[in-house]
Structure formats: structure tokens, C-alpha cells
Amino acid sequence: MKIKLNLLKPFSDAIGTKELGLDFDGKTIEDLIKKLVETYPKLKTELYTENDEVTDYVSIFVNDKPISVLSGLDTKLKECDELLFFIPISGG
Q1: CATH code: domain of residue 19
Q2: What's the pTM value of the predicted model, to 2 decimals?
Q3: Residues 22-74: pLDDT tens digits?
Q4: Boundaries of domain holding 53
Q5: pLDDT for residue 92
Q6: β-strands 2-7, 82-86 pairing
Q7: Residue 44 CB-density burial (10 A; 0-12 exposed, 13-18 middle, 19+ buried)
Q8: Within a 10 A sphere around the Cβ of 36, how many other Cβ atoms?
Q9: d(C-alpha 59, C-alpha 66), whole Å
Q10: Coil, helix or strand for 67?
Q11: Which of 11, 49, 51, 75 could form a disulfide with 7 if both were Cys (CB 3.0 to 4.6 A apart)?
């Protein structure tokens, strides 16, 4: 299936682009993250903790919905999904 990724810093810096079209043969967000790290090893430090768990600070949206209101890392992906990876910034 084809999916589209939109990546904000630091993820865009790690792979060298802000947008990425990807042919993906996995099923879930977790599968996608594994594939991305395999293809772009610099992403590992941005997406995983030292214990090889996906970090809590990364926000992932699928078609404008946060995966936290879907099925988290088990969210199923489908043809033409658009994903956004970013780190929320707060302050005042």
C-alpha cells in the first residue's frame, strides 16, 4: 500500500526530507516505525528509548487524528493514509 508521511523536526532532519511517499507492506503504526528505523537508522534515537520502546514524546497523527484516540501503536494503516510525525512544543 502507498502512504504519505509528513515529518517535522527532528524527524525530517534524520531522513533529509519533510515529506515521504512510501510503499508499505506492514499493517500497523508499530510496523511502520520498525520499517522507518530499518530504512533510516538515524530515526532510532528520535523514536525509541534506550530500552527500545517507542518514546512517549513523539506525536503521530493518521489522517488528522492522533493515534492516542485510535488504537495507539496498533492502529491499522490503509491505502492512501497520511501520517504526521512531530514533537509537541509547549511554552509561554
Answers
A1: 3.10.20.30
A2: 0.92
A3: 999 999 999 999 999 999 999 999 999 999 999 989 999 999 999 999 999 99
A4: 2-86
A5: 63
A6: parallel
A7: middle
A8: 23
A9: 7
A10: helix
A11: 11
Residue 1's closest CA among 71, 64, 59, 82?
82
Omega of the bond prior to 10 within 30 degrees of 0, cis? yes
Q: How far is CA 12 from the centre of its chain?
A: 11
Mean pLDDT computed over 9-17 = 95
The total number of structural domains in the chain stands at 1
Residue 92 located in a structural domain: no
CA distance 60 to 57: 10
- 3-state class (DSSP) for residue 80: coil
Instruction: Tell me the three cell numbers of residue 13.
Output: 532532519
Alpha helices in the chain (DSSP H): 11-15, 29-39, 44-47
Q: How far apart are CA 44 and CA 58, in angstroms?
A: 12
Q: Which residue spans within 1-92 are E strands per DSSP?
A: 2-7, 19-23, 59-62, 65-66, 82-86
